[in-house]
Amino acid sequence: MPQPLTYQPQGDALALDGGVRVEWQGMRSAMLDRAVVRFASRLAILSGRDAAPGGQGGLILRIDCASPDPGLLSVHMREHYRLRTGPEGATLVADGPAGVLRGLSTLLQLVEQPDTGPVLDGAIIDDGPRFAWRGLLVDVSRHFMSVTALERQLDMMELTRLNVLHLHLSDGQGFRVESRLFPRLQQVAGPGRYYTRQQVRALVDYASDRGIRIVPEFDAPGHSYAMLRAYPQYAARPVTTPMDPKRVVRAALDPSNPQVYVFLAQLYHEMAGLFPDACFHVGGDEVRPDEWTTNPKISAFMKQHGYADAPALQAAFTQRVQAILAHEGKTMMGWDELIQAPVPASIVIEPWRGSRYTAQATAAGHPVVVSAGYYLDLLLPAVEHYRVDPLDPQGNGLPPEQVAQAHAPFLEAFALDPTARMTPAQDRLVMGAEAALWTEIVTEEMLDGRLWPRAAALAERFWSPASVRDENSLAARLPMIQSELEKLGNRATADRQHMMERLAPHGKAPLATLLSVTSPVRNYALNHVFGPGRVTPTENPPPLDRVADIATPDSFVAAAFVRDVRAYLAGRHDLAAGLRARLEDWRDNDARLRQVAQVDAGVNDALPASALLAQLAQAGLDTLDGTRTAWPAGGPAALATAQNQFAASRSILAVRSTPQPAGDLLQDITPGIVALVQAGRGGR
Ligand code: ACM
């Protein structure tokens, strides 16, 4: 994952007995040497055999890199490569250094561990990306993420061939880069939680080494509360210190103040020097019109210049910012709100509110990077995002009924629009897409698990041909890629274990069992954004410590259960014993968890979900044993409850009006129990 463009398995695998010997043809560079060192140490981990490069024997790796790439680290970088593996070793031929990096990541995925010892599968691969921009957005403003955590994500990105890290560096809760010109930005707006200039340079180098661009985002004119706490003279309405949670999402710059543009020009100049990428993201999303229109000075300014409304005023602001960035030699990028009024077509637009904005932006000639449909903080299972194509709905080749299915979770508030139509010329303006993780309720210890493996599924959506969309194959490969990523540094499982130990120091096993088959409520239900806010913005956010914070959107154990139920119902009666054992374990887990809850109060939150799991498991057991008539009266009710709980966070609109299950957990074995019960009803 991502699946290559073409892949032909070859018969003979190569035993990996330790060591890598590299034979260079074509160009060689210090960057490629470092890539080979990384490859060798990863190969050693995956194969369990020492694989220091330069030794004798072992894997012979021939690397033929045609030439340096003047487009390296741009949307034009050459990532195409050909790979041949077999008994004689591996041959990797690439058009440029980025192609070598991508080929090495694929080569690692050919390592297998059969009982007879590690092997490299034989294959002929000819591969290149579908989209030039395959991004991952990490919001480091809401929750600051350490350099180490970001480096780890860059490693995962290299392994899955993602190539843009979009850092959301400034928002209401913090400004995260050291500024020499405006030191109050780190002193007031990001105290103790910002990247020094030296750290930024090192991070950019770390990413470059992996063929990954870093695109910085400094959100303005909205989402700028942190910046404005440091420099309140640029605010449209008064901003005070200490942090006022009600103002955090609302405060905006004053576009009528000429000094604002002087400030931005100096700030962007300094930041443009730190972040070498051609693209510079200035946000532009979710400006609250009344931040401007309730200020008499700004209203008068609008009248004087003939700006009819806030979007017209924002367009004027955008044009001035674009000129500032053009002066820096930067391409401006921003969210889809920028096209509410006409702005220069050179601005790269990032649609996030729906595919209709992809259609609208490309119709106006803007290059586009799509994040609509890829918001990982919606906590949807990987497959929901995987179904959405960046060229939705036109380019993905799905029959109409499946288009509706692909859009279902997004159809309401985040409107992917099955009626939006794109021409081939518009499709060509789509440079790619980004998975996005907003971190209102994601701490650093949750970062790896909230990003992966779902970001790997999206790496495939963005890299592989549109025709690669088999959901069963995705489900089968998702645990494999996650296991591989964890061997190579991903901390998702380790961090979850740690969170469970903190919550249930007297016995995390029953909690782990519950969490292995439950997932968090979806579509921002976990944030409680539409009720009393769950997380008030504060300077020093505490750890997130509820059971649902540990639960993951993709429950592999539940998925395997559902798969086995279907196979059993299709005639695999040998699976019955294994199904029964799992159901008994889930049923009996409830008593064990109750015991733990007597001493570890944090677990109480999960008891209703645990009881429901026990009821579902009992319902499944009764059906398996053919004693459905002996169901406790709760059986059908439990199933209905579990199904209603899914419906309650089926979409953002549902979340607005529907109470969520206690503990905010969903029962992922539900489809398996439904299948068993329906088959039982059919007279099995
Ligand atoms: C956004 O999610 N406001 C870009």
Molecular structure report:
The chain is an alpha/beta fold. Helices cover 43% and strands 14% of the residues. β9 and β10 form a beta hairpin. The structure holds acetamide.
Give a short summary of the structure.
The protein has 684 residues and is of the alpha/beta class. Helices cover 43% and strands 14% of the residues. The longest helix is centred in the C-terminal third of the chain and has 24 residues, at 576-599.
Largest sheet: 7 strands, mixed
Arithmetic mean of pLDDT: 92
Number of strands: 18
Q: Give the helix proportion (percent range).
A: 40-55%
- The helix tally amounts to 27
- The computed structural class is alpha/beta
The hetero molecules present are:
acetamide
Question: Radius of gyration over alpha carbons?
Answer: 26 Å
Task: Enumerate the spans where pLDDT stays under 50 for 5 or more consecutive residues.
Answer: none
How far the N terminus sits from the C terminus, by CA atoms, comes to 39 Å
Percent strand = 5-15%
| Morphology call | globular
Write the layout of secondary structure elements.
Elements: E1 6-15, E2 20-26, H1 30-47, E3 59-65, E4 81-86, E5 89-94, H2 97-109, E6 111-112, E7 119-127, E8 133-139, H3 147-160, E9 164-171, E10 174-175, H4 184-187, H5 197-209, E11 213-218, H6 225-230, H7 245-248, H8 258-274, E12 279-281, H9 289-293, H10 296-305, H11 310-327, E13 331-335, E14 348-350, H12 355-363, E15 368-370, H13 382-386, H14 400-407, H15 424-428, E16 430-437, H16 444-451, H17 454-463, H18 471-487, H19 492-503, H20 509-515, E17 518-520, H21 547-550, H22 556-569, H23 576-599, H24 607-624, H25 634-648, H26 652-657, E18 665-667, H27 670-681
Parallel strand pairs: 2-3, 3-5, 8-9, 8-16, 9-11, 12-13, 13-14, 15-16
Antiparallel strand pairs: 1-7, 4-5, 4-7, 6-7, 9-10, 17-18
Helix pairs in contact: 1-2, 3-5, 8-11, 16-19, 20-23, 22-27, 23-24, 24-25, 24-27
The structure holds acetamide.
Residues 285-286, 335, 352 line the site of acetamide.
